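Work Package 3 committed the consortium to producing structural models of liganded targets before the mid-term review. Because experimental data for this complex are still outstanding, the team generated a predictive model from sequence and the ligand definition alone, so that downstream docking and mutagenesis planning could proceed in parallel. The input record is reproduced below exactly as it was submitted to the modelling pipeline, together with the SMILES string for pyridoxal-5'-phosphate.
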Amino acid sequence: MTIRDNLQITGANIQAFAKKYHRSTADIQLLAVSKKHSAQSIQTAFEAGQTSFGENYVQELLEKEEQLKALEIDWHFIGPLQSNKTKKIAQVVSWVHTVDRLKIAKRLSEQRPDNLPPLSICIQVNISAEESKSGVLPKDTVQLAKQILELPRLKLRGLMAIPAPETDFEKQRATFKKVAVLKEKINEELASILENPLDTLSMGMSGDMEAAIAEGATIVRIGTAIFGTR
Ligand SMILES: *Cc1c(COP(=O)(O)O)cnc(C)c1O
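The resulting structure, written out as tokens with the ligand in place, is given here.
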């Protein structure tokens, strides 16, 4: 299978799941996760029509961005972000999915160049409440959202989650549903200060995309099903 075939199949799956769960395909964006795959593979996917790519490691993202400057790629950062690495990220991506503390958000807002639109942000929620995972705990999420809404160069879009690995479909769904409910809670509790309700649920990977779409994912982050194993 080529990257082009895989993209075609993934797109068809998104369409089929959208239909199955009474969603509009237009509300589900495919983010191609290219970590540990070459710039050449990204170029191949781009030539097949995929324009949004997600990367997890700052150095790797910057190298690929440099190599692929000629292409109009929409870069998303989806990995753990340390405060000493925020500046470059604020300059090259349109989205950061993994904000889980105010310090990082403040730096991204301060460092977002004036000539670019506000940086789209998702708060990463530790939805399975695992000690080892990054992400803010559900109980602290509304407060962090409130603080991020005060930062001028960020646009808070919604929530992102990486649930603990789970193969049972109903259990996958139950976890994603918690993320969706938490987003609605933020929309209700912060209605008076939100310009627009949060519109983004970044959830669903190669192994749990159907469950995520069933529960309202608006960005699915797909690596293996497009580029193969890493
Ligand atoms: C690697 C990764 C993905 C893609 O996972 P696959 O199982 O390869 O589809 C999605 N999101 C994040 C945050 C990742 O690190």
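Reviewers should note the following from the model. The mean pLDDT is 97. These observations will guide the Year 2 experiments.
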